[in-house]
Specification:
With 130 residues, the chain is of the alpha+beta class. The chain has three helices and six strands; from the N terminus they run αββαββββα.
Length: 130
């Protein structure tokens, strides 16, 4: 099932990049999102929570781009490492870094997303050495 998980996440990321919208059909209705990059981010749950998280995240930037670098099979989880280039909305400061996203899957759907501000943190979260 691991290869299928990676393919599902690759397709979902491509859809997000192409349309600006998540591929809702890939998500469990009670999906959980945990953003480890935003202090006190709170809980985001379900498709409405996912949409709110994307809005909260995007509000920090006047512009940004995400370019996937790696999709790493971690069993029932997939680590996505991507290059983030963004300009702060209030500061005008440009940030370039490699961030990580861990997607946890169950029954062919994404049940949880964890966002980290580094590849190393994402790999550590799934028990893989950086």
């Amino acid at each position: 099932m691991s290869r299928e998980n990676v393919e599902l996440i690759e397709a979902a990321m491509e859809h997000l990049r192409a349309t600006g919208e998540p591929q809702w059909s890939s998500n469990h209705e009670d999906i959980e999102i945990h953003d480890h990059d935003i202090p006190d981010a709170g809980e985001y749950r379900g498709n409405a929570g996912y949409a709110r998280w994307l809005e909260d995240w995007a509000d920090a930037w006047s512009e940004f781009s995400l370019e996937p670098d790696e999709f790493i099979d971690a069993g029932d989880r997939v680590v996505v490492v991507f290059r983030l280039k963004a300009t702060g909305r209030g500061s005008g400061v440009t940030v370039e870094r490699r961030d990580g996203l861990v997607a946890t899957l169950g029954d062919g759907l994404v049940v949880r997303l964890d966002y980290y501000n580094s590849r190393e943190q994402a790999l550590e979260a799934v028990g893989l050495a950086a």
